Amino acid sequence: MLNNALYVLLFAVVIFILFKFVSPLAGAILLVLVIMYAVYAYIPTYWASKGNMCFNAGDFEGAVENYKKCMRHRPKVNHRINYAYMLMRTGDFDEAEKVLDFILRFKSVKPNLRNEAKRNRCMVYYKQGRLDEAIEDAKSMFNDGYKTSQLYAMLGYFMILKNPSAPETYDFCKEAYEYDDDGRDIMDNMVIAMYHKGEYAEAKKISDKSIRENPKSVEAYFHGAQVEAKLGNIDTAKKYLDKLPECHWSNMTTVSQEDVDRLKATLIL
After folding, report:
1. d(CA 213, CA 80)
2. Is the pTM of this model over 0.70?
3. In which region does residue 210 sit, left (phi positive, over 0), alpha (psi from -120 to 50) or beta (all else)?
């Protein structure tokens, strides 16, 4: 922001000098050129903003279309990362991988953006059925000192998929929860880890909090229903499952309709 302000100030001074001491025509020409460049430079941000508006409204297809237009106009690295995420939400994981691989080719990309791109690529690997690669890359980032709520949540979930009952999985999910006990996905992971360890009463406390704070989360209601069923609260479990059609489903949702149907079947018996 400071650099942009300095550039604006510099151009304003140059234009003033041209108007005042050289030629009004020269000043006018430079002013027009500056305006044209500003409009050109703003184009990718404009399409990205429209894409974000669609995404926030739940229109993921519209978000992708607007980001495609953004990609045609020299997008910034963060625009490319957002585009890859939009592609992931619509299930186009192969294209998302291409976008992220393109970013990671360049050593000039800032470390925080490089790590964000790598983290998103881990999710792509997982969705492509390459769980071991996803875990390897995520652990590498974690061991290199990149520790964020998003990485804790993602790696914890991968470890649950690999071995939900392993002590290492439980310990990592607990560490993540201690790092950020308000993270939605971190709470989900902790509930699952406790569920597999048989700590149903403790899992319920976190599940109740997650549902209260994330009333549109598929995972919060589903894992909450699992816990309530284990505690014998069948009516509550059914109520949670009845909430699922009102929740936000996407290709990034970690619960499938088959998972829901299987749990419903056990509650009917």
Report:
1. 30
2. yes
3. alpha
